Model the fold of this input.
Amino acid sequence: MTVSPAIATDGLSKRYGSTTAVADLDLTVPSGVVYGFLGPNGAGKTTTMRMLTGLVEPSEGAATVAGVPSDDRRQLVDRIGLLPEEPPLYEELTGREQLEFAADLRRVPFEQIADRALGLCDRLGLGEDLDRRVDGYSKGMRQKTAFVQAVQHDPSVVFLDEPTSGLDPRAAKTLRELIVELAADDTTVFLSTHILPVVEEIADRVGVLHDGRLVAEGPPGELIGSVEAEGGADLEDAFLALTGDASEAYATE
Amino acid sequence: MRRSDLRDGAVLARTELRAQVRRIAGNRRQLIGVVVGLLSFGLFFPLTFLSQVLTFAEGLASGAPPLARFGTVLVSVLTVGVYFGAATAINQTRVGAIGPLVRTSIPPEGVVIGRFASETLQATAFAVVPGVVLLVMVAAGAGTPLPALLVLAASLPLLVAGLVAGRTIGATVRYLGLLSRLSAWGKAVVLVVLAGTAFLGLQTAIPAVMGDDGAPSLSALLPGQPLQAYASVVAAPLGATPRPLGVAVAAVVLAAVPVGLAAALRIESALLFDDRGDQSGDQRTTSRSVPRVLAATPATRIAWRYLLRTRRNPKLVSHLSMVLFGALAFAGSLVSQPELLMDLGPGAAVVAGSVLAGATFCLNPMGDDREQLPLLLTSTASTRHLLRGRVVGGLVVGGTVAVGVGLPLGLVSDPPLRVLGRTLLTPVVLLAAAGTALGVGAVVPKFERSEYMNVERAHPSTLGTLTYFFGTLVVVGIGLALVWLSVDGGSGPLLVGAWIVYLAVLATTGVGGYRYAVGTFDRLTMDDV
Done:
């Protein structure tokens, strides 16, 4: 029996006027893996995530996420969770009210998911602050709340954009553990971050986007191995080698 | 004030102005709005006063300048200056993200000078075109440019003094606001009471000032006597006899500029580093569970969260100040005709409730949630639940006014049948209004942040809001008239036909608006924002 991939794209492209943000992206992400999505600033990572979550329409191509077309919002929302770079929280609500609100948006009674949601909050050290208003939260607390909001309904695929941004080392470590546990529970984690050691540590596969194009794809070890001949020793070296064209061009000039 | 402060202030002002010009030039809709506003206000406003200006100009050139009218002109200039000065001092939210950089890069005096200069120039830019047109009209009416030049010479110091005095007043108000440690709702209540008092005061004063009922007339009551004396000094080349009081007034006006500037500088510098902050972010809040009455469905629970957020932060409904102005107009009428409370009160409550049912949460349903769109669009299979939540929230607010105020008043003043008819009509018009408002919000959604009533957020479209307000006023008014006709003995096919048409209109706009909004927002993507 063939297991359908969690994410599959076919010639996915996005143009803004004359600027091409993502070009002809063919991507296949198996279920239940942590997929590290890397790329320099402006490479098109956020745009790709937005297309995969139905937030923007592709100019060309198509994508399926958890077996449904990414433009079928009705089907898609039950299967995905999203933590964007800016946590989408209401300043006037408390953390608990925010999580309840997110559950109501999905028409899931919060009581059904409360154990999971509050358990995640406790593990992230947010439990005692849940009844404080979001406008008094630090950046890290907002990030934790938004993470729980993205995964509390147990989605099939979760998209995380810089999830450890603003977190202290302990919380960042817990979050990494949670991501691994999510994948172990068959949730596919699509992880975009600039913190390469994190990806190297927890990602099963890695895709590197550069100037809107996928320039490399595979397990981290494979990517590292591909540049070892040039002296590369870790994912950072591989990343720099794969995306170094622009800086090299500047250097030559 | 050091020279370096002036230099730093000039750099800051130049940068802010350049940024503002680029912001407007980069947004075609905003650019067209500014150009149209400048041209229409610049031309139509002066033309409204064409005959009065020409008469004034002829008087100036006649050898016996009309000092009473000149005094009125100068009072207007002073008022404009004070208003813009105070408004720019109070509206300080635009310091925005660069605030910390600016505050830690140049001395506070430089920041204050720079912001004062840039904000004043931005605020008064709209007055330049009509000002020039008015001066040209004066020159044309007088047949010589000298009177226009003298009007300009008299007006400029007053305008600057007014701006500085207004800035000081505005800064003082902000300082008192911080000292008071009032919550956001407390400040809103104080603002409403002050606005209401001022409005009612004007309503009472205007008949007296205009000379009705044998009261003294405008020119005698104006603080124009000192300004008329000031005008007599400026208009001396035109044949006026200068009065000593005028010289003293001129000295006071000129002295007010540095004194006011020093005071504003001191207060605003202190405000820049005041860490008392906005009390709306009170952290004593604890989580509130959804009350049983609103716990039935996801939509009603969503409604509760909107109500809760508004309870905690009244700035979310700052656009309702337009409704407040309408209510103040009605309250003003009550001062002169108290019997209107019983005659029109119950109906007015239904109208106000209907307006609120749609205006509170439905006029910009997705723009309101601009920052949360990534959550909303990836969590809701259809925006239906979200929009229904907004409708329910609006119905709670509007229903409270329509029923809570209208019903008791009606029970006291109207026959039972009329109360019953109005009570039956109320939920229908409230629902229709909320649905219509959603439709308006879908036709003219606003996702750009702008500043209104000192609140910077994605406010509903002004055009859409006004259309909705007046449309609701008329439509609900017609419904109330139909109720009145029906219960007071009216019958016949014409009335039945009128009801059928009326209910069809309500259904079309209400249900149609809701459906259009659901259809539009279900297709919304971040590309549209």
In short: DSSP finds 20 helices and two strands in chain B. The CA atoms of residues 41 and 48 of chain B lie 10 Å apart. Residues 300-528 of chain B form one domain.
